[in-house]
Design brief:
The chain is an alpha/beta fold. It contains ten helices and ten strands. The chain binds adenosine-5'-triphosphate (ATP). GO terms for molecular function: ATP binding.
Length: 245
Amino acid sequence: MAETARNVAQADPAPQLAVENLHAWYGESHVLHGVTFAVKPGEVVTLLGRNGAGKTTTLKSIIGIVGRRTGSIAFAGTETIGMVSRAIARLGIAYVPEERGIYASLNVEENLMLPPQVRPGGFTVEQIFELFPNLRERLASQGTKLSGGEQQMLAIARILRTGARTLLLDEPTEGLAPVIIQQIGRTLARLKQEGFTIVLVEQNFRFAQSVADRHYIVEQGRVIDMIANDELDANHDKLQTYLGV
Ligand SMILES: Nc1ncnc2c1ncn2[C@@H]1O[C@H](COP(=O)(O)OP(=O)(O)OP(=O)(O)O)[C@@H](O)[C@H]1O
């Protein structure tokens, strides 16, 4: 009996996100062919893979914005495959697309206030400025006037206000200067400390290594391998083959 209790206590926590046999289509085009992976609460995992492997489509499928999807996507035990994206977002999942989605005609403050709160406990505006001091200084600037780094920070800041605690981030470092990439890395580390669960699509392999617990390799619409972050260096050759780098 004591043994059983210990086993239970040591068992992995239930996944925050469990994707199983996920297929997705854009119109007639069948893009995901049975993606399976899981993310534990508080984990940071990346999806790595060549261009066109299906990483972005996996994130879009989780938040419910692809044409059609089948299989299972359970969020904290709730099946979401039949839900519309707004209902999925209300469970506390947020997606930051690669193109960031900042409204050019709105200023920083208006962009920040735009997404509706989905859960209690989101960051206050003051907490956001603590995390991203540049945004306070740029509060009245139009979206068009922001640098790529400022746009990325605003895109992340905006979803922190909503109360979402699971974040899907598509290539947050793309096109940014090293000093800004470092700042984004520190932000993700802080969010991880606070218990956020993060799925990251990333081409910047060094950045991925600096922030993640585990890496899933996506190839031709499937997850074909998983590598723990502390085993990454030992698997360098394998990874090179997968990513063609
Ligand atoms: N809106 C769309 N309509 C039709 N096909 C699409 C659409 N978006 C992506 N695809 C196709 O789906 C496949 C997977 O694309 P996806 O963007 O998910 O790949 P990815 O791994 O994120 O790569 P990348 O880093 O190039 O974005 C590709 O063959 C792509 O051409």
